Amino acid sequence: MNIVQLTKLLSYLLISTFILVGCSDDDDSPINGNPDQIANNLPLGSGGTPNDLLSDTTFKSLTIEIVAVEGFEPTSIAIENFRTFLEDRLNKPDGITINLRTVPSSNTAPFTIEEIREIEKNTRTLFNEGDDIAVYVYFADGSNENDSGEQVTLGSAYKNTSMVIYEGTLRRFSRSGPRAPSLSTIETATLHHEFSHLLGLVDLGTPQQSPHESINDQNEGNNHCNVSGCLMQASIQFTSGIMGMSEVPRLDAACIADLQANGGK
User: Fold this and answer.
1) What superfamily does domain 3-261 belong to in CATH?
2) Against a cut of 0.70, is the pTM above it?
């Protein structure tokens, strides 16, 4: 699960811009690779990973390994926003490190999650070590294979410590019209949303402290928040701020209470 999806809007409201988000099933294929790396190759939300990321019980520090295709690196603004978001929510007394490096294109777009997992297998270099927990983020130069004319995928948290951002898609949307959110705004929102799924929201390894998970058409929880305006809502609203700049949505009080109860700030 945990795929941010965007429904194209041909016209934008004067006050707000909306990005619709949804989730599809994450990849549950068997664990591959070195047995020493099993802790980083678990299904999303499993193995106590949300608590490991949030608390300092087992891991005192966090290392984010961002691997971007050359020419599709995230903006420095988005990286700094991401760092602040992590520092605000995680208890990591020994610090949070974000490493960014580039790799050549795989030339395999559009991607399936299976192909993204293979890219991770070939490019990921950092794994949990000692009291440092590692997360892998891949910035892809193409789109998800399930994109359509009406709905496109922005990113996906597909394993317990792995996520992909479809930077090519983000860049296209940021240029889609004069009222579209800036690239750094879309990058920030997608990074925060997907990492929040790694943290177990909503009811994805971090228990709810109050009922706030939204329900899908099959009357099942869909791991999103039902509180209006929340970052984890199935429909994200970017509200226009000073000088018309779009503001990245934040976690609501119910989501924050969940994180705090599972070891976070």
Assistant:
1) Collagenase (Catalytic Domain) (3.40.390.10)
2) yes
